[in-house]
């Protein structure tokens, strides 16, 4: 079997396994990535995400991560929601949760599927004469710049919101990578097709985009509710609204989503109690209750304290004075970030009760 035939067989196997799209690029296909990453880090736009600096050299050049790699197979799996996520941001007594976190943890779902495809690829390659084949599989758990690689592999392009989107898959996708020492035929890189559209930039509640195709994570609600430790700058709290884990606004308004493919794995669909949970109930969670409630969910990794901090911000933004009873027990919480958020919420709700809004 030729490398081209092996690649075609891999594409068929990946699609049968549930992936929406695959493509191949070379490890040296993103020469601009290192410079862009350095500029991002030098500007401090990564905030508290020190792990981005720790292995910046590996991120900027896949050849440093694995010098033996000759091809990078990029795969996209759709998790397109069946509802409009913006609907959940208009529910004052409930919290909005990012679509990707409403189902099972995608790290588990996608990586297991990717490993199965990878094992098939190795077996098929060896069966057909490529006895020295090796692979490495990555799903958001290693210093790999998946989005630039996916664009180089022809899956789509990084839009003005910096996320990957494609004309035939939309932007609701998880990305995975299979590095291999085989020299597979590469696909043509995708061009940018955003045109004059600025919907994703205009919808951002906290103005996290300094310019098209640029993100300042320090102002991004996804970063603030997931990665940022401790109190959030008061200037940004109102913009968070009722979002208690992540934000989908820039993804939800992209016009290319009219071509988005459906999610094929029901484990990625919303689980009971994960979409728009009641804020009062979430505020009452202790550590054990939090762990039980979000077992198997990516939400679990941020811990009870950061999550309840987010819930307090949402309650403060709710405009529902009756929710003050939910944050009252938290003003002296053992976690300083939770206590600060609870006191802020009380002040906001008191002003709402006095006709502040």
The gross shape turns out to be elongated
Radius of gyration: 22 Å
Q: Approximately how much beta-strand content do the residues carry?
A: 5-15%
Oligomer type: single chain
DSSP helix fraction: 25-40%
Count of β-strands:
8
Rounded average pLDDT: 95
Q: Note the total helix count.
A: 16
Strand order of the largest sheet: 1-2-7-4
Structural class: alpha+beta
Query: How would you sum up the major sheet?
Result: 4 strands, antiparallel
The helix/strand order is HEHHHHEEHEHEEEHHHEHHHHHH
Q: Report how far the terminal alpha carbons are from each other.
A: 69 Å
Contiguous runs where pLDDT drops below 50 for at least 5 residues? none
List the helices and strands and how they pair.
Elements lengths: L2 H15 L3 E5 L7 H10 L8 H4 L1 H5 L1 H4 L5 E8 L17 E2 L8 H22 L7 E4 L7 H7 L4 E2 L5 E2 L7 E8 L18 H5 L17 H6 L7 H7 L2 E3 L3 H4 L26 H5 L3 H7 L9 H14 L7 H4 L8 H18 L4
Parallel strand pairs: 3-8
Antiparallel strand pairs: 1-2, 2-7, 4-7, 5-6
């Amino acid at each position: 079997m030729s490398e081209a035939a092996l690649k075609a067989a891999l594409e068929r196997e990946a699609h049968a396994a549930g992936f929406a799209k695959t493509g191949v690029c070379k490890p040296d296909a993103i020469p601009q990535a290192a410079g862009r990453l350095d500029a991002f880090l030098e500007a401090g736009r990564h905030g508290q995400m020190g792990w981005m600096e720790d292995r910046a050299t590996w991120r900027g050049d896949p050849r440093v991560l694995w010098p033996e790699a000759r091809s990078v197979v990029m795969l996209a799996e759709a998790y397109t929601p069946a509802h409009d996520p913006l609907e959940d941001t208009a529910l004052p007594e409930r919290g909005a949760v990012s679509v990707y976190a409403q189902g099972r943890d995608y790290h588990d779902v996608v990586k297991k599927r990717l490993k199965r495809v990878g094992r098939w690829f190795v077996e098929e390659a060896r069966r057909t004469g490529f006895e020295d084949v090796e692979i490495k599989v990555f799903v958001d758990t290693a210093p790999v710049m998946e989005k630039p690689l996916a664009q180089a592999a022809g899956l789509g392009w990084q839009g003005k919101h910096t996320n990957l989107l494609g004309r035939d898959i939309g932007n609701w996708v998880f990305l995975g990578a299979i590095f291999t020492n085989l020299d597979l035929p590469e696909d043509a890189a995708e061009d940018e097709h955003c045109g004059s559209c600025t919907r994703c930039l205009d919808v951002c509640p906290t103005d996290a985009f300094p310019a098209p195709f640029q993100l300042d994570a320090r102002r991004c609600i996804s970063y603030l509710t997931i990665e940022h430790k401790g109190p959030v700058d008061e200037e940004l709290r109102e913009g968070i609204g009722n979002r208690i884990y992540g934000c989908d606004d820039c993804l939800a308004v992209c016009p290319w989503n009219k071509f988005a493919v459906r999610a094929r794995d029901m484990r990625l669909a919303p689980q009971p109690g994960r979409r728009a949970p009641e804020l009062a109930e979430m505020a009452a969670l202790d550590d054990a209750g939090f762990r039980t409630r979000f077992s198997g969910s990516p939400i679990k990794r941020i811990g009870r304290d950061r999550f309840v901090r987010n819930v307090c911000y949402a309650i403060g933004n709710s405009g529902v004075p009756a929710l003050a009873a939910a944050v009252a027990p938290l003003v002296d919480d053992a976690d300083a970030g939770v206590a600060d958020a609870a006191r802020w919420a009380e002040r906001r709700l008191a002003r709402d009760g006095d006709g502040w809004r």
